[in-house]
Every structure is written in structure tokens, then in C-alpha cells.
Amino acid sequence: MKLYTYYRSQASFRVRIALNLKGLTHDDSFLHREKGDRACATTCSTTST
């Protein structure tokens, strides 16, 4: 499971805790929101229709 996370996100922190308690493995992918990183950079369209 791939978990997109931001270092200051309390929500992703709680999700990581829950996944660890359940014993589920996950790959963290850290995003830097101030630099404009997005989790869907390859699938989201940046043009409006």
C-alpha cells in the first residue's frame, strides 16, 4: 500500500499509527506541499475544462 504523506499532517500520522497497529505494510511517499508536490501529479490534469 502506498501512503502519500506530508510531514506536518496529523491525519497521515494517525493513519500510519493505525496501519502499524493492524500490522499492515505501507510505503511512505513524502510530499512537499510548499513546493507544489501533489499525490496525483501524473494522473491529474492541470488544465481546466
Report on the structure:
With 49 residues, the chain is α+β, with helices and mostly antiparallel strands. It has a domain at 2-35. It contains one helix and two strands, in the order E-H-E. The protein has one helix at residues 10-22, and strands at residues 2-5, 27-30. It has a two-stranded parallel ribbon with strand order 1-2. Helix 1 links the parallel strand 1 (2-5) and strand 2 (27-30). The N and C termini lie far apart (32 Å).
Q: Percent helix among the residues?
A: 25-40%
Helix and strand succession?
Answer: EHE
Distance between the termini: 32 Å
Quickly give the structural class: alpha+beta
How would you sum up the global shape? elongated
Beta fraction = 15-25%
If helices are DSSP runs of H or I spanning 4 or more residues, what is the number of helices?
Answer: 1
Summarize the structure.
With 49 residues, the protein is an alpha+beta fold. It contains one helix and two strands.
List keywords for this structure.
49 residues; alpha+beta; two-stranded parallel ribbon
SSE blueprint:
Elements: E1 2-5, H1 10-22, E2 27-30
Parallel strand pairs: 1-2
